[in-house]
Design goal:
With 154 residues, the protein is mainly alpha-helical. Helix content is 58%, strand content 8%.
């Protein structure tokens, strides 16, 4: 199926450009790129990055009721679970192999006190924002804009 999908992508110049942009992200390989393309390219073009995040169910959901119930925010999970699944492994891989994404991941754990899965969800959300910007501006992934390492010790 992957070969056939790649053949279909090669036949369309726009799809080739989108695939090349997605592959510019360290952590997104062919399988993940194809999966992301299937979920993202069907969305309306005028959607904003925040709407993509909400569509993926990666937006925070707060639970409060009066003064007695005040739970921590969690991801809403109201949205496309396939998009969340398509972002999970690339976020893990990018957090391990890209120094800027890793810096952001470590910052979330060490400075903000998040658990590892919460940090991965935050990386997924930020990665989705980056993909949105890449597709809108037709520019490859710039990892230096993902997180500034100048304030951290390597």
């Amino acid at each position: 199926m992957r070969k056939r999908t790649l053949q279909l992508i090669e036949a369309n110049e726009t799809m080739q450009q989108v695939l090349a942009l997605l592959l510019s992200v360290k952590g997104i390989a062919e399988a993940s790129a194809i999966q992301l393309m299937g979920e993202l390219l069907v969305l309306p073009e005028d959607m904003k990055a925040k709407q993509w995040v909400a569509m993926a169910g990666l937006d925070p959901k707060h639970h409060q009721s009066g003064s007695s119930i005040n739970k921590k925010a969690r991801i809403s999970k109201v949205g496309n679970r396939y998009l969340r699944q398509a972002l999970y492994m690339p976020a893990l891989s990018a957090a391990r192999h890209d120094k800027h994404v890793n810096g952001y991941y470590r910052h979330l754990i060490e400075k903000r006190g998040l658990k590892k899965i919460q940090a991965i969800c935050a990386v997924m959300r930020k990665l989705l924002h980056a993909v949105h910007a890449m597709l809108k501006q037709q520019k490859p992934f710039d990892n230096t804009r993902f997180f500034d390492l100048s304030g951290t010790i390597a």
